[in-house]
């Protein structure tokens, strides 16, 4: 349209595409954050953001992230050591369940 000298807003182009049954290349499915259950107990903040001075593998933090792979969600669980802020354990899979976390702990490899 730009080459033809036609000026149109994004909204107008979106309306025309919708009328024609077209979707843009940027259209994505949106995920909603999981709501916290009302009756979940609040946990005490034992560390109180004091992360220094710990022995390796004594204090761990975890992170769960997800990415879209081949049109489906894949999940990764990372265990991060607070002593050196390095990744100490990891696990990946198609299901977001307890086995993902247990798999990350299984990779710790204690001597």
Contiguous helical run count: 2
Strands side by side in the biggest sheet: 1-2-3
N- to C-terminal distance: 65 Å
The biggest beta sheet is recorded as:
3 strands, antiparallel
User: Which parts are unreliable, with pLDDT below 50 for 5 consecutive residues or more?
Assistant: none
What is the approximate shape?
elongated
Tally of strands: 3
The overall pLDDT average reads 81
Helix content: 10-25%
Strand content: 15-25%
**What assembly state would you assign to the polypeptide chains in this entry?**
single chain
Q: Any idea what the radius of gyration is?
A: 23 Å
Query: Could you spell the SSE succession in H and E letters?
Result: HEEEH
What's a quick, concise take on this entry?
This protein has two helices and three strands, in the order H-E-E-E-H.
Topology:
Blueprint: H1 10-19, E1 60-69, E2 72-81, E3 87-93, H2 98-106
Antiparallel strand pairs: 1-2, 2-3
How would you sum up this structure, described in words?
The protein is α+β, with helices and mostly antiparallel strands. 17% of the residues lie in helices and 24% in strands. The protein contains 2 helices and 3 strands. Strands 1-2-3 form a 3-stranded antiparallel sheet, covered by helices on one side. A hairpin with a 5-residue loop joins strand 2 (72-81) and strand 3. The protein starts with 9 loop residues before the first helix and ends in a 5-residue tail after the last helix. The model has no long low-confidence stretch (mean pLDDT 81).
């Amino acid at each position: 349209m730009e080459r033809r000298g036609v000026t149109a807003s994004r909204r107008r182009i979106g309306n025309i595409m919708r009328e024609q049954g077209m979707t843009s290349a940027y259209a994505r499915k949106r995920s909603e954050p999981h709501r916290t259950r009302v009756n979940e107990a609040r946990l005490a903040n034992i560390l109180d953001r004091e992360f220094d001075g710990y022995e390796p593998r004594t204090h761990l933090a975890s992170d769960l992230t997800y990415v879209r792979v081949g049109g489906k969600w894949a999940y990764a669980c990372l265990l991060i050591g607070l002593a050196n802020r390095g990744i100490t354990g990891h696990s990946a899979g198609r299901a977001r369940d307890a086995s993902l976390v247990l798999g990350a702990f299984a990779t710790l490899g204690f001597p």
